[in-house]
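Board notes (copied after class):
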Amino acid sequence: MARPRKSYLLRIPQELYDTYEAWAADEFRSVNAQIAAVLADAARRAGRLRAPRRESDEAETEGRHPAGPAE
């Protein structure tokens, strides 16, 4: 199940958009995904956002092996 996402209109200078567009292409992302990744990284570094949970962490809390069901 996908997480809900908030739509938000962002107005930025063309030069900054062009910078993100090139950066996104370098990392095989859309401009939207690149901006979201940079914002999330900045929030994590500032201590405002927890690191995303990894599948292996979730598996351990549920008592199963990360690669599949417990045998």
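Comment from the instructor: The chain has a mean pLDDT of 84. The radius of gyration is 17 Å.
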